[in-house]
Amino acid sequence: MMGRLPFLLASLVLAMLGQTWPALAEQPAEHPAECRVAENLIEPIFPLPHVAQALAAKKLHVLVLGAGSSRLPGASGTADAYPARLQHALAAILPGVEVKVTADVKAKRGAAEMAMALPAALAATRPALVVWQTGTVDAMQAIDPDQFSQALGRGINTARSEGADVVFINPQYSPRTESMIALGTYAENMRWVALQQEVPVFDRFSIMKLWADLGTFDLYSATKKLDMAERVHDCIGRLLADLVIEAAKPSEPHAEGGR
Amino acid sequence: MKEKPFTAPLTIERDLRLDLFRGIALWLIFLDHIPSNAVSWITIRNYGFSDATEIFVFISGYTAAFVYGRAMQTHGFVVAAARVLKRAWQIYVAHVFLFAIYLAEIAYVAHSFENPLYTEEMGVLDFMKNPDVTILQALLLKFKPVNMDVLPLYIMLLLWFAPILWLLLRSPSLALVVSASLYTLMWVFEWNFEAYPSGTWAFNPYAWQLLFVFGAWCALGGAQRLARWINSPVTIGLAVAYLLFAFSIAMTWYIPRLGAYVPKFVGEAIYPIDKTNLDVLRILHFLSLAVITVWFVPKDWPALKSRLFWPAIVCGQHSLGIFCLGVFLSFAGHFVFTEVSNRVFTQVIVSALGIAIMVAAAALISWYRVIERQGPGPRPPAAKPGYAGGDA
């Protein structure tokens, strides 16, 4: 469904970006090509010191705090959703490190509710990293954007006070419901909170948008089958692992364009 | 110091710049309302803090004061207030009509769309399960789907407008102080209208009234009072500097790596830039744009009467109809993207076609107005002097 022009343009942009990201371009060659399409959208501009410490200690526990888009329906849903794929990818990249990803995922949960659930989840798993997927539910419920931002701030403070770094995951790109869910304000507020608090954002929206624009995945399709959803989650898990590893690399001048 | 009430300016000719920029604002709102539209990269919201909504609200306040101010001076408070309320009613009807179209789109999507990747997002269609409550809440202006927030705001602004206009005609500065106080109290006490099923209005009327009243104040002579300030090199320099600052901040939203160069205290001072409550940063951005625009485009610029600007001007003169059409066309445009093609080429065509339809519709409304004025019956042709040249 895509024309040639946008594809060429995007390839050109990707090629140009690739020049500035040599380390990423050469490192994870094991990812499937469909995941790698979006590799250049991974920008670890802020460091993850607690993760770096955990890696040095050869033991990395990650807590995924999420809502409905952090899981998949069906019998094998938990194993195929991105939290489990993240564990798989991290374990593959980090031989000799004990990797454990715990998912605290409940549908229809807004940021405020998740921030409240966070202390208990932190106490139970003692992670070095909280991967926090949120925004969609708040947008659907038209929560006051200011309250959304404050909830994000509270969550970051809670996680950091318990010795964990935070990575945000922003909403999914969902072309069919795009004219019904006003994600814009919430995605922007998340980006602003992240910039202020120096939290890396996994830009799931742009990544999936790129996949849709390039025809990598047909996100418009109406289907009950899980195959495409599984591949999308697999790629998200892999790219997320790349982001975490890159951001946790010690002693690199992150402020200088991430290198 | 005793204030001299405004009287003289109300007889002056309608300022075509208002129609021009309101027309352009309507086009930009249309482009921004189509999700994932590549063409919306040209709209001003991507290059600073404010967007077309500020332009629309300010100019709507300006023209409302222009039209109903004259009515209030010649026919008195009651007649002018009745006309304002009639206008609010028309906008309400237009809003309900748009809601019906929105329901049709939603019902179609709910029926045809399924994907396990999007179980969470599909929850937005849940309101179809209890239409009794939802439709009632929509009629009460509490349930407002995406992109349908501007008209309810406009209705609220008009409901308050008659008394504010009365005050503006007697003591313009006091009216402005009242408006600014309301804005300040809104920030202090976090006032807003409640929305359904949760949350608050996306455009807080307590906040956005400030821009509307400021527009009205400018129309009733305030602009002349400010002229000396607006044209001073210091103001223009400050405006340019502020626009550049906003531009460089906006760039960090698209190129996250640049964000590292924004000093922490700047980030803490500016974020979040609140659209719901009309952040001061947004007002300043709009005012800077306005100062620069007024400087570049003088009122008597001959090009304003040229054919080049006619399409935008005619859209701006029939803003309510064209706004509604724009919302409908943005639904239709998104529908084309999802059902037919989302290639960039299609997006450009859909965007251009949408604007062409808006212009054609505006031209048609103008033509209707001409033939209605000629009219078959014995109606006096000059029944509505206030409407010469366009809507409020």
Quick take:
The complex is a heterodimer of chains A (259) and B (392). With 259 residues, chain A is of the alpha/beta class. Chain A contains twelve helices and five strands.
Largest sheet of chain A: 5 strands, parallel
Give the strand order of the largest sheet of chain A, numbering strands 1, 2, ... along the chain.
Answer: 2-1-3-4-5
Distance N to C terminus of chain A = 36 Å
- Mean pLDDT rating of chain A: 85
CATH homologous superfamily of chain A, by name?
Answer: SGNH hydrolase
- The number of distinct β-strands of chain A equals 5
Amount of helix of chain B: 55-70%
Count of individual beta strands of chain B: 0
Q: Average the pLDDT over all residues of chain B and give the rounded result.
A: 88
* Gross morphology of chain B: globular
What radius of gyration of chain B results from the CA coordinates? 22 Å
